[in-house]
Amino acid sequence: MHRKALTAVFVIAAGVLLAACAPNATQSALEPAGDNAEKANTLFVPVFWVAVAIFVIVEGALLFFAVRYRHRKGRDTIPPQVHGNTRLEIAWTILPAVILAGVAVPTVATIFELARDPGPGALEVTVLGHQWWWEFDYPEEGVNVPNELHVPTGRPVLLTMCAVGVGYENQPAPSECEAEGRVTTLGNSVLHSFWAPELFGTQDVFPTYARTLTFAADEPGVYEGQCKEFCGLSHAYMRFVVVAHSPAEFDQWVADQQRPAGSLEGAAAEGLRVFLEAGPAGCTQCHSVNGLEDANGEMIRGSIDAPNLSHFASRDCFAGCIFENTDENLRRWLADPPAMKPGSWMPDYNLTSEEIDRLIAFLNTLK
Ligand code: CUA
After folding, report:
1. Ligand 1 atom with minimal separation from the 132 CA
2. For labelling alongside 344, which of 74, 115, 149, 333 has CA 20 to 30 A away?
3. Is 6 helix (H, G, I), strand (E, B) or coil?
4. 10 Å Cβ neighbour count for 21?
């Protein structure tokens, strides 16, 4: 019985381990697709093999001596006692120090290289870590999107990153982390960490000061990323994608994002009304849609920071990038957001299924 239980544990453990080898698991730092990840990998590989060599030598010696000098019948219980060997001790103090110093040289060089200023040609993006979604603001281009970081290939991207939040005493976040021209606030902000393994190493994202990260993508493609620092209930749902375009396609994407969003006819116009009036304060208490204005012609902007929904229909995922952008998923999400994403700041407005249909029709026009 004992053996059966052990076998079961072994089989399950082996299954879990093998699952990590799934061919479609994309978030691998060992398959770099950009200069930042490439440099980290170039450092990792030799350091790894040095560590393997040391492991084999040390463990090999350990096993050898354990077997060779194990207790046998007829031997003394206490082996002959040796007290110190100056030469050996000097050797095994100096040797590890030399190895560590050797590893430190490329390590420090890589740290400085990764921290280098990319120069004036870089695309600047402000990255804000919210509970629990990422906001990407392009100050030069006047574009603001959640969950999807769009970049051109072959051009350095300079990210300036802060953790931001709402509520409590709303002190302003560092001035480098303003977005859409608005002052962002600290509020309930917590530590996050930004990581798309194929493109760059992790960078912790702090509330009180801005950090930067530079990377470039070699090839067009979609690279998955996620928050790598526990940041509360839906930490595991704090995902994002980096979408790398050819430079021409990127320019087109920017132009598309800069257009005013949506045309409002039929079901969409009904949906807009739900959007403005649902629940106690409408969806616009938190969400913005570029082009939506109040009676005074001022852009309607929520008092609480939530994803900007302009061009929502052009995005592939939503809600911290945990859902593919389909009507079916939208319906599930709108019916009860906190049930889909624990701790979500988006409340359940108890929308009727008719209201949800109208909202979806409206959202689908935001191309
Ligand atoms: Cu943000 Cu974990």
Report:
1. 1
2. 149
3. helix
4. 7
